[in-house]
Amino acid sequence: MRQAVMTSPGTIEFRDVDTPQPGVGQVRIRIERIGVCGSDIHVFHGKHPFVTYPLIQGHEYAGVVDCVGDGVEGILVGDKVTATPQEVCGVCPPCRRGQYNACEVLKVRGFQAPGCAQDYVVTEADKIISLPSGFKPEQGAFVEPVAVAVHSTGQAGGDLSGKNVVVSGAGTIGNFVAQACTCRGAKKVLITDVSDYRLDVARQVGIEATCNVSTESFADAVKREFGADGFDVGAEVAGVEASLSALVANIGKGGTLLSIGVFEEPPTVDMSVICEHELSMKGSMMYRHEDFEQAVAWIADGSIVTEPLVSGHFPFEQYEAAYRFIEEKADSTLKVVIDLD
Ligand SMILES: NC(=O)c1ccc[n+]([C@@H]2O[C@H](COP(=O)([O-])OP(=O)(O)OC[C@H]3O[C@@H](n4cnc5c(N)ncnc54)[C@H](O)[C@@H]3O)[C@@H](O)[C@H]2O)c1
Ligand SMILES: [Zn+2]
Ligand SMILES: [Zn+2]
Predict the structure, then answer these.
(1) Using a 6 Å cutoff on CB, does residue 237 contact ligand 1?
(2) All domains in the chain, ordered by first residue
(3) pLDDT one-digit tens code per residue, 327-336
(4) I need a labelling partner for 6 at 20 to 30 A (CA). Which of 26, 35, 184, 223 fits?
(5) Is the pLDDT of residue 136 over 90?
(6) pTM greater than 0.90 (yes/no)
């Protein structure tokens, strides 16, 4: 089978390797689509702090079950599936309390363990998420980033009925966070970015209130959309200090800040506001199995729309061209999809 290996930053080699065989309790998936995300690009640029090369990338994928190992029940050859990419220990304190997404020795396939950039992947049956028969392959590849949004918005308590929300950052994750807030009943969601293209895509998926913070003040947009009520939940999904500071400076008293973006530089935060305004701050690390299931359900019933985020498709052999495309068109791309079939 074909396999794409990043041998060093910026270099992808294609190899022909043996197709892996599923062992007891394992399933083999024939990969159809792989989504490329910002973290993959960081690896491509040699700027990801927690990876070593050579590395097989790919953690957002969908495919079809091709072979089932002994002892696997309820998963059949031909099923459309995706799978969670985390390898966890099961015995550390977070794992023991069910918070295995924050496992002390977490390895994520595509980063600290081999990913899915190959024709077939073998994984444990308990990592498999079944997809509805009507799912398009690229919808399956979107389940992973949508699950990030499901988990992080769940960190705000799950039910957002009656709440005003600001999502700061309208990349793929921010877009899905905004949509997930609507799914959870938010009264109104304002999304901000510095890119008109990304805000336009947000409007295409139904998030009508937008603000380009490079041309309008954040505070003015909050007043325009929420009036005197202000906002109750602020989701930081840009990973930059200016975005976090704007949320902290404008969120209502007693509000909840969701920290989702990964900061390249440690940001400076005015902690006095957290104290005086009695704010709650919640971090969010990836997702758990049930978040993948909720993501599938929301995509399947149309509550979360993925199609407007697709910026292009590239065949497997052009993996590197896909990365170059994202580099060149950083301001006008969201999700680029690799097609294996
Ligand atoms: N916590 C998790 O589990 C998790 C999972 C996946 C990704 N992430 C992180 O979430 C963040 C978003 O991911 P993404 O793939 O959407 O990345 P992205 O880079 O596509 O999106 C970030 C967006 O923030 C915008 N931005 C920049 N400055 C801004 C500002 N001052 N105000 C508002 N927006 C601003 C950018 O224009 C961009 O559109 C990244 O930091 C990523 O590493 C976290
Ligand atoms: Zn990703
Ligand atoms: Zn653990």
Answers:
(1) yes
(2) 2-142+306-339 (3.90.180.10), 155-283 (3.40.50.720)
(3) 999 889 999 9
(4) 26
(5) yes
(6) yes
